[in-house]
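Onboarding guide, step 5: your first structure request.
Type a short instruction followed by the sequence, for example:

Predict the 3D structure of this protein.
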Amino acid sequence: MDKVKVISNGGISALSAFFTGFGSSVALDLPIELTISRSDSTPASNQGTISETLDLLKKRFDVQDCFKVTVSKAIPRGKGLKSSSALTLSLTLGFLKLNGISMGEKQLLDLSAELSIGNGTSSTGAYDDLCSSYYGGACFTNNTERNLIFREKVDGKPVIVAFNKARRASSSVDLSDMKRFSRHAEIIQDLIKERKFYEAMTLNGNLLGYIYGQNSDLIRYLLSSGALYSAQCGKGPAVFGIFDNEEELLSAGKGLTKFFGVKYRKSLFSGRESMVTEL
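The system replies with structure tokens like these:
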């Protein structure tokens, strides 16, 4: 086997694990698609997170080969859409498949969490994000103990994600500062336990928006354009809007470009698991 293709979900936080160590993420059909193949030398294009993750994997499993990674479809980076977790998970899945290394799902997710910390993209391991990226649907986790508490299917309502050039890295979050808001996060956690993921997603986004700042004009516009729910995507800075039908979503999307000059993606919440295919 010389080449594999991997597809993994993006997502939106329903409960950010920064607050209490418990987290929840809902998979979004806004995936990363990449191929990984053996190479005679390390390509110059293997930079940043890709290079760091592969180096960690090669050291972990004592693999000397070089690999080429090509990302054919990317999740917008630094927007709160789980791009780093999806990339780390996809690289791990592809590397293991290419090298004939087998492990259970728990081991895979634990390894991906360790790599997320090791490559500098997460301070907590982002176990909730990795679970939703891998399994699809909504996942509720104890990130401190790296335990999946439950996962649940979510109906596929149309969702729009709006963003500009601004980025906000998860690794920059001050965890000690987040603990001050744990009482508020417990309210969101109760919503998760009741499977009220859209409500939790909205409250979580608003709470983080109050802390870091948010684009209230975009949120107000999406709500006035028919969105059932709208808030910041976790730590942001992207903003989501959940609609009852695609017609209203598309109409709102035109206004985002015309009045705000921002980019947007239309999507659905995803129940698809990560896919690894031999090429």
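Each response can be followed by summary notes, for example: The radius of gyration is 18 Å.
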